[in-house]
Amino acid sequence: MPHDPNRQLQSRALQGMRAMTPLLPGIVPFGLIAGFTPVSFGFTWFDAWAGSLLMFAGASQLAAYQLMNESASLWVILLTVAAINLRYLLYSASIAPHLANADRLTRLLAGYGLTDQIYAICHRDYPTHDWDLQERVAYYAGGSCLIWGLWQACTVLGAFVGQIIPVFWSLEFMIPLTFLALALNTLKSRSHQTAAMTGAIVSFAGLTLPYNLGLILGGIAGIIAGVVHQRMRS
Amino acid sequence: MTEQFIWTVALAGLVTLFLKSAFIEGQHYFQLPQWFIDALEFVPPAILCALVIPGIFKGDVGLVREFGSVPIDPKPIAALIAAMTFLATKKTIPTLLAGMASLYLVFWVQI
Predict the structure, then answer these.
(1) CA-to-CA distance for A184 and A112, rounded, in angstroms?
(2) What is the mean pLDDT of chain A?
(3) B101: Cβ–Cβ under 8 A, 6 or more apart, which residues?
(4) Cβ B86–A100 below 8 Å, yes or no?
(5) Alpha-carbon distance values, A46 to A39, A113, A160, A165 (Å)
(6) What residues of chain B score a pLDDT lower than 70?
(7) What is the Cα B53 distance to its own chain's centre?
(8) Is the four-CA dihedral B88, B93, B98, B100 of positive or negative sign?
(9) What is the pLDDT of residues B89-108, one digit of tens each?
(10) A78 vs B11, B22, B95: nearest CB
C-alpha cells in the first residue's frame, strides 16, 4: 500500500469528525438557547454571536449575558465565567502531553477549540492509537472544527429566531432553567448535594447584596461545604 | 453594542482562553495539586446552584415587561416544576419545556 502522508492526515481529520458526530445533537438546543436568550435581553444578533466567537464555551456564555443583564460588575462576571470554565484546566492538563511539540499557533487554536466534547473523544482515542503528532492534531482539528462550525451556526440561527419571537415568550427564562438542569445533573453524591444546597442558600441570602456578590459568596461557600462534607465522611 | 459590552465579552473570552490553553501552552507540565482537583469536583454544583437563584428571584421576565406584574411571581413555581421534571426524566429538553409551560400557565391564570 503506497504511503501518502496527506491522505493519511485527511483520513485522521475525517475520523475526528466521525467520532464527534454522535455528540453533536446534544449541543444544538444549547447553541440555539445561547443565541436567542441574549437577544431577548435586548442584545443584537451580533452581540449574541460575539460571545460564541470570543468565548466558545456554552454555559459561561449564558452566565455572562444573564449577569450583564442584571448589571453585575465586571469582576463578578469574570469570576463567574472563570468558575464555570475551571474544568478546562483539567482537560487542558490531560490533553497537553499529546499536543506537546506542536507549533505555537496550533497550540493556541487547540486551546481555543477545547470543549467538553473534543476532550471526551481525544481522551478516549489518543491513548489507544499509535498516532504521531500530526495525526493527533488532524484528529483534534477535524472534531473541533465540526463542533465549532455547528455551535456558531446554532447561535446565529438562534439569535435571528430570537429577534422575531415576541418579548412575552420570556425566552430568557431558559437560562436559569438550563442552569437548573445542569446543576441537578451534578448531584452524584451527598457531598455534591451539600455543595449545591449551600450554594443556593447563601446565594439566596445574598440576593440583595450589591454587584451580585451573593452569587460569588454562594459559589465559594458551596465549594467549601462540599469539600468539608467529603473530608468528614472519609 | 456599547464599549462596556465589548470589553466584558472580550475579557470573558480571554479568561476562557487562558483556562483552556493554560497547560497546552505551557511547555512544562506539572501535576495539579490534589486538594485543587478535590475542590474542583464541587465547583459545578455550587456555582450553578448559586447562579440559578438570581435568575429565579431577581429581575422580570418578558411577560411582566409586556403585560405588567402579577400578585404571585411565576418564576419560582416554574423553576420548581422544572426541577421535578428533571429529577423524574433526567432529560434537559422536557425540563425546559415544562418550566416554560408552567411559567406561562402561572402567569396567565393570574391575569
Answers:
(1) 28
(2) 93
(3) none
(4) no
(5) 9, 20, 10, 17
(6) 1, 26-30
(7) 9
(8) positive
(9) 999 999 999 999 999 999 99
(10) B11
Whether the complex's predicted ipTM is more than 0.90 is answered with yes
Neighbours of B40 (CB within 10 A): 15
C-alpha cell, B3: 464599549
HSE value, Cβ hemisphere, 13 Å, CA-based, for A35 = 25
DSSP state of B32: P
Q: Looking at chain A from residue 38 to 97, which residues have their Cβ under 8 Å from any Cβ of chain B?
A: 40, 43-44, 46-47, 50-51, 53-57, 59-60, 63-64, 66, 68-70, 74, 77-78, 80-93, 95-97
Which DSSP letter does residue B28 get?
S
On whether any CB of chain B is under 8 Å from the CB of A165, the answer is: no
- CA nearest A99 in B: which residue? B24
Q: Are A66 and B32 inside 8 Å of each other by CB? A: no
For chain A, give every domain's residue range: 5-169, 186-233
- Which residue in the set B47, B86, B103 is minimally distant from A180, CB to CB? B86
**B79 with A204: Cβ contact below 8 A:** no
State the average pLDDT over residues A88-116. 91
**How far is the C-alpha of B96 from the C-alpha of B85, rounded, in Å?**
9
**pLDDT (average), residues A79-103:** 90
Q: How many CA atoms lie within 13 A of B110 on its CB side?
A: 16
To probe the interface with B, which of A76, A173, A202 has the most B CB atoms within 10 Å?
A: A173
List, for residues A152-180, the tens digit of each pLDDT value. Answer: 999 999 999 999 999 899 999 999 999 99
pLDDT greater than 60 at residue A11: yes
Q: What is the number of CB-based contacts under 8 A between chain A and chain B? A: 286
Nearest residue on chain B to A227, judged by CA atoms?
Answer: B39
Amino acid at A79: L
